[in-house]
């Protein structure tokens, strides 16, 4: 939202997801246009390794945990592997070593898909690893919504 109020409303969250949806659509369109030129083993590897390293270990730890709590290392793994910065470095290194190929589009497809389709962004240590609304956040959201509704009523009277 801004540098002092680091949260999103439902609307701003949807707008950010929409932006990533455009990135997903462009990446998918380019991928589809060059489907016959895609090397499938690198494409599958590049798409899957992000979650194999960054998500599955935390998911397994979450399901094995009696209270759903997981170590911070799983959040770090998720955030590092789902970072546009990290994946830009990976793609850049791939380009230097192997050269350009259309399979590289699976990286933005994965990242944009996670954000646009599932609403998954970076994970914070303060929330459960697997999405679950925190009671304190639900209350904050309710208070903010009530305040916004009161402001709209005031505007209607003017």
From TrEMBL:
It comes from the Bacteria. The chain crosses the membrane at residues 15-34, 40-61, 73-96. The keyword Membrane applies. Keywords: Membrane, Transmembrane, Transmembrane helix. This is Integral membrane protein. It comes from Nocardia bovistercoris. The lineage of its organism: Bacteria, Bacillati, Actinomycetota, Actinomycetes, Mycobacteriales.
């Amino acid at each position: 939202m801004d540098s002092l109020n680091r949260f999103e409303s439902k609307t701003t969250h949807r707008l950010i997801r929409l932006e990533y949806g455009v990135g997903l659509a462009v990446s998918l369109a380019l991928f589809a246009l060059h489907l016959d030129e895609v090397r499938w083993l690198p494409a599958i590897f590049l798409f899957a390794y992000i979650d194999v390293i960054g998500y599955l270990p935390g998911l397994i730890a979450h399901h094995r945990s009696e209270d759903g709590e997981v170590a911070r290392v799983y959040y770090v793994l998720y955030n590092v592997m789902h970072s546009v910065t990290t994946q830009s470095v990976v793609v850049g290194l791939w380009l230097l070593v192997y050269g350009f190929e259309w399979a590289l589009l699976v990286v933005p497809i994965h990242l944009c898909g996670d954000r646009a389709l599932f609403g998954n962004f970076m994970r914070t240590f303060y929330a459960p690893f697997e999405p679950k609304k925190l009671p304190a956040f639900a209350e904050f959201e309710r208070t903010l919504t009530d305040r916004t509704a009161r402001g709209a009523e005031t505007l209607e009277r003017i």
